[in-house]
Design goal:
mainly alpha
């Protein structure tokens, strides 16, 4: 992929659009799905089905059989992203409004920048990236408003802790996936990650006693429809776009989806539920979009450019 290839730029734009828009709607989808389906069991079934589809597709088109080392790496990535990251969101959605969940998940870019800086490669963020992260958090604070600053309804402290740990897990998994030993086929790797993460979610559901709480007859069509939406759009399309972007774009840039998702959630609330859009919301949206523009237009740090130049592998395939 080259910066001057129009088709490549088009794929990147389409993938960012999928991650920005689709994932902005999945918070609502999760809330509806777990109305009548326990969260970890719902997530486990969702990702096992999506992973099986991708795995069978990859193998049917001739991708080589993965090795035990590949399965180990894929399970670790799936555990960090899906059990740790997505599992935290599904659990917290039972106790915290989806808008607040999306705002707290937006800490992911901060953790990615911090982990890259403190990790073995010592990738220091550029001034622009650092300013973009700070600006994005300011916009999110403005958007949160009284909901996080002593409004009528407080935020459950345990849910806040779980979401912070989940954001850290997602950031760690995002970075690990770029450097782990995974199959060269991105479709095969993603299918394996979903299978591994889905299996871990099911195990978590069993450990948390969700199976006795599952009443098949009480599962609503509304929840099943939301689960189908999450499977097709959230997992197969959104997650696929996210993992592919991690292979071809800097992690800090990919993580800007966390700034846009709350804005999408606010817009959908206005469009679907007729929720009012206040001046505070418009101001926060402008700040968040500005932060995204700043991060996406800022180049890599000198340290990261040196590391990419010295590697024997193309930058687009370093995660393979």
């Amino acid at each position: 992929m080259t910066a001057t290839d129009p088709s490549s730029r088009g794929r990147v734009i389409a993938a960012f659009a999928a991650v920005y828009v689709i994932w902005g709607s999945t918070y609502l989808g999760i809330r509806v799905a777990i109305e009548t389906i326990p969260p970890f069991l719902m997530g486990g079934v969702r990702f096992l089905l999506a992973g099986a589809i991708l795995y069978v597709w990859a193998r049917s088109r001739g991708d080589a059989s993965p090795t035990p080392r590949h399965w180990l790496a894929a399970t670790i990535v799936g555990g960090l992203l899906l059990l740790g990251g997505n599992g935290a969101v599904m659990w917290a959605a039972q106790h915290v409004p989806t808008g607040i969940v999306s705002l707290l998940v937006a800490m992911v870019p901060l953790w990615i920048v911090l982990f890259e800086w403190l990790g073995p490669r010592k990738v220091r963020p550029t001034t622009g990236v650092a300013m973009g992260v700070v600006l994005g958090l300011v916009g999110l604070a403005v958007l949160a408003g009284p909901a996080l600053w002593g409004g009528k309804e407080g935020v459950d402290p345990l849910s806040v802790v779980v979401l912070m740990l989940g954001s850290m897990s997602w950031a760690a998994g995002s970075l690990y996936s770029r450097r782990s030993t995974l199959p060269s086929s991105s479709i095969l790797a993603m299918g394996m990650e979903m299978l591994g993460g889905g299996a871990l979610l099911l195990i978590a559901g069993l450990l948390f006693g969700e199976l006795p709480r599952l009443d098949i007859e009480a599962v609503s069509g509304r929840s099943l429809l939301a689960m189908a939406y999450l499977l097709v759009f959230g997992s197969l399309i959104g997650y696929t776009a996210y993992i592919w972007l991690l292979r071809v774009q800097p992690a800090a840039r990919v993580s800007t989806y966390a700034y846009v998702n709350p804005t999408v959630a606010v817009f959908l609330g206005w469009l679907v539920l007729s929720e009012p859009v206040t001046q505070r919301t418009l101001l926060a949206g402008a700040i968040i979009v500005g932060s995204v523009a700043l991060i996406t237009t800022t180049g890599r740090s000198d340290t990261e450019r040196t590391n990419v130049t010295n590697t024997s592998e193309p930058a687009t395939t370093r995660a393979a």
